[in-house]
């Protein structure tokens, strides 16, 4: 699911105002237009001496297993899976999902962080609460303990956040623009010249049919590629 809003600081959420919505025609990595030049330069200057890795704009993916565990860190079995991924402990508190406004701010400040959202943001308020009382540590700058997810100012409760977020998803603005995001993720801007122009090219392994695993005789090499594909993220089948 896409990030659909950009306003996480107002006291009330005005869904009749187009300015509260993210520009759905752009990949999340360039939702902040300031990043577009850097992303483009990275693509144009990339060269693989072996000739196997195609040029790409983003070295990480908008949807992968680690991203799901990141958002669902407070909910089992994802808590345990997160700990396994982090070699037996919780990741550094500052890197955890601790605040919805801070997560959006990270997209605005860091073109490397291109995680989109997961469906739970639109129906499952429980994932925002540290119901199991996990010790998630403290943030370095504020020394604030990480517990329940910090909500936008316009949300009165977790249930209210889900309710308003879902209303935003069903709004007139999103209905009129969602096809632009679908073009990027599932459609004609997913790969090829249109993807290059839209600054929407990801690491080659993520695309369907990019690697023929059956043709790789070296088992170590095949396992390494399988690991990259399963952990890195996968672009959906193109419509």
TrEMBL record:
Classification via SUPFAM superfamilies: BEACH domain
In terms of CDD domains, this protein maps to:
Beach
Please list the GO terms describing molecular function.
Answer: protein kinase binding
Q: Which InterPro entries match?
A: BEACH_dom, BEACH_dom_sf, BEACH_Domain
Q: Which Pfam families match?
A: Beach
Q: Which GO terms describe its cellular component?
A: cytosol; membrane
Q: Write down the superkingdom of origin.
A: Eukaryota
Where in the numbering of this chain does the BEACH domain appear? 1-239
**Keywords associated with the record:** WD repeat
Residue spans crossing the bilayer: none
Report which residue ranges the record marks as coiled coil.
Answer: none
Q: What are the recorded Gene Ontology BP terms? A: intracellular protein localization
The protein depicted here goes by the name NBEL2 protein
